[in-house]
Design a protein that fits this description.
The chain is mainly α and 394 residues long. It has two domains: 2-41 and 195-387, no CATH class; 51-178, abc type-2 transporter like fold (3-Layer(aba) Sandwich), CATH 3.40.1710. It is 62% helix and 5% strand. It contains 14 helices and four strands. The protein has a four-stranded mixed β-sheet with strand order 2-1-3-4, with helices on both faces. Helix 3 (67-77) links the parallel strand 1 (51-57) and strand 2 (89-92). Helix 1 (2-17) packs across helix 9 (240-269), helix 2 (19-40) runs antiparallel to helix 7 and helix 10 runs parallel beside helix 14 (366-387).
């Protein structure tokens, strides 16, 4: 037992002492967690998104109800800050006495340069077109090449839908008492609000385990074999099973360090709220570790050299990681990518972990989320047991 612990300690210390290992297995996951949270962390938070929008009313004073005022009031309402939070829209409108056509031309230029997300125009004759059923329109200029502009267009469409209802009420064509109300409820066990930081943290933890297993395991074994370090082990009482036990224990220690660093930064630095202390969550973390460890042994068995192992790991890394749902949902991908998702063990581990944490619904049944990774573990261990050579080829 002392030999196993000594080997585990040596493997862990060696891994933490290597600059490359520290960067790719600890620093890079931390960087990815922070940068993705900073970019997408406002998703699902009120007051976390703000669009700069131009609004021009070209309508001249007309007799009858001022329906253009309904439109302006609707957008002005969501442009007001609430509880100290940044408003959804920051409206830019012509000043008193300012030429509206000149303002509109300038607003279009601002939109083109990305300083405005959209420009809303209430055209001439808007009131009369509404009252006479002549097909009234509100023109919205957007830049489809910018994601912020596309998001602003979606929000504007929802606001205009509400404006339509208000206008119909004002002109007597809609009875609000006859409308069907909608009640919004969360699914059982699902959070009432979405936090991308909480969604991302389990994915980045699994990504850290994944890269450590995919690159660290075959790299360490094959480098040690090619440099005849393993041969020195075999002339001692250390057997292959004891070596594998010590190596795996050291790899588990590395994963524990990865988890501790990522959890501390995600929980206390980025505001993620994830309870990993649940027994099911711990079980899925262990399942993920074992799966990725087995993947590392599989690559070590297939590759002839350490450089060949790194090449295989790089080929597998991107599709398995990005099509495993670690960073974003993968349920709506097209058919040929969907096939990779369905055979990818990362998909089931990430989905099962988030489901037991109450973050999302699982991508598969609880049994499927366990059986598919176990199947990959069995296959990897079987191939590694048959093909992994402990002696360097001459």
């Amino acid at each position: 037992m002392n030999g196993i612990l000594a080997l585990a300690r040596a493997h862990l210390i060696t891994a933490l002492r290597e600059r490359v290992t520290l960067f790719w297995f600890i620093v890079f996951p931390v960087f990815l967690l922070v940068i993705l949270t900073l970019i997408f962390g406002n998703l699902g938070k009120q007051g976390g998104m703000n669009f700069q929008v131009g609004l021009v009313n070209l309508l001249e004073a007309e007799a009858g109800p001022d329906l253009a005022r309904v439109v302006i009031s609707a957008f002005a309402a969501i442009g007001e800050p609430e509880d100290g939070k940044e408003p959804l829209f920051s409206l830019h409108r012509p000043g008193p006495g300012e030429d509206k056509q000149g303002f509109l031309s300038h607003a279009k230029e601002e939109l083109q340069h990305g300083r405005l997300a959209a420009v809303i125009v209430i055209p001439h004759g808007f009131n009369q077109a509404v009252l006479s059923d002549a097909g009234a329109e509100i023109t919205v200029y957007t830049d489809p090449t910018r994601s912020g502009s596309a998001l602003a267009a979606d929000v504007i469409a929802e606001v205009v839908s509400g404006v339509n209802r208000e206008i119909l009420v004002r002109i007597g064509r809609l009875d609000p008492n006859n409308e069907i109300p909608m009640r919004n409820e969360s699914l059982a066990g699902m959070p009432a609000s979405f936090s991308y930081a909480s969604f991302l943290l389990p994915g980045v933890v699994l990504m850290a385990f994944f890269t450590a297993g995919l690159f660290g395991v075959p790299g360490a074994i094959l480098y040690a074999r090619d440099r005849f370090q393993l041969r020195r082990y075999w002339v001692t009482p250390l057997t292959v099973p004891r070596y594998l036990a010590g190596f795996s224990l050291g790899q588990l220690g590395l994963s524990a360090v990865q988890f501790a660093v990522l959890f501390a930064i995600g929980e206390y630095g980025l505001g993620a709220r994830v309870n990993f202390a649940r027994p099911q969550a711990i079980a899925f973390l262990i399942l993920g570790f074992c799966t990725f460890l087995a993947f590392g042994f599989l690559i070590a068995a297939v590759a002839k050299t350490a450089n060949g192992a790194m090449a295989i790991a790089n080929i597998l890394n991107i599709p398995l990681m990005f099509l495993g749902g670690l960073f974003f949902p993968v349920g709506d991908l097209p058919g040929f990518l969907r096939a990779i998702v369905l055979v990818n063990p990362v998909t089931y581990i990430a989905g099962g972990l988030r489901a037991c944490l109450g973050l999302t619904q699982g991508t598969a049944s609880p049994i499927g989320s366990v059986l598919v990774p176990l199947g990959w573990i069995a296959l990897s261990v079987l191939v590694a047991a048959r093909r992994l050579s402990w002696e360097a080829e001459r």
